Known about the structure:
Alpha/beta hydrolase family protein; AB_hydrolase_fold; 14 strands; alpha/beta; Rossmann fold; disordered N terminus
Amino acid sequence: MKPRILAVIIAVGLAGIFVFAEDASKLPQPTGPYGIGRIACDWTDTSRLDTLSPDPTRHRELMVYLWYPTNRPSIEPHGTYLPGAKKIDADPQLGPSMREGYGPTWPQILSGALYSHVVENAPAAKAPKQFPVVIFSHGLGGNGFGYTALFEFLASRGYVVAAIEHPGTADVVVFPDGRLVPITHDTPPPGLTPAQQMQRMMDSVGKGIENGAADERFVLDRLIKENNGSAKEFVLAGRLDLTNVALMGHSAGADFAARACELDARFKSCIALDGAMVPVSALPEFPDHAKIQQPLLYLENHYDEAHMFGTHEQHLAFFKEKEQELSQCPKGSYHVVLSPPGMMHGSFSDTYILHAGNMSEQTAQAVHNLGLVETYILAFLDKNLKGTPAPLLDDPNASHPEATIERLGK
């Protein structure tokens, strides 16, 4: 496969470097007709060993959090933003790292001042009979909870979101038995030449993408099993429309989603959020030459060349490669570039809302930018999973002025 430079350089989560305000912001109130429930699932794929685990005999184990529609409660729920945060904070290695990464937001998370709008283990809404499903993968060094506003937005509009916490890729995963699994750092042995270091990185990132894609396919397998089981064991049993499943990921997670869609036709559509691998390619490329089989929403921030990794010559080759890759996407695919002020890689998550603190102008801009992301995601999902028209994507007169849309496929 080709080098996956951006998956290392730009695939960052909440543990990046930010200018912090003194007070954490409140997440936007979900505006859909439903309330939001959440359940935690600890699932083990007994068909795979965990290549990212220090124990070579351990099978791949995932935490998956399902966000789903409920009847709207009469008062605003104050759910936990990041389950297990106090356990992480007490760890002598991970606690300081998280405090540094999250800044003043971390005490707000620990105290509950920053909260989600979920009700844990709540009964699902009685109608409709079944809900379409979105399986989500976070970026490198982040976690699923960093996309809480997006998940709440989708759940309040009738979608179930299955957010995977990818061990080894996430900043830290907390399991019910108290285990903390931090991100895996690949330390090369001394004495490698630059070419050998590059090859090692290529191999490592390629394996990471394959591993993430396998996680997503396993989660779909498990959702099928649980959906066919008892409601006493699984609150959403019988309520998942697994003929209408989308894969979505941000940053490195976008590459996981794209690769899984290359390999598995059960996924009906694919959403890649700011996952370009500059200066190499836009989508994963492996020796099998598999291509995405489903309609794709390739949604990204606008980057000028001055802020792109690599040389001008590499950029020219990248633009050519990207154009060719996107031109091969199936009918019903879209390339959407967002260019509002303040739009950045972290704008697809809660990042800039949380770290705006009490600065109203920055908060308003961050909420606007995430809202723009949500609007295009919802239009694409509604078209592909619910069969409703999407004038925002298909009618040039309805497009947002801060978005450029290219319709792909023949």
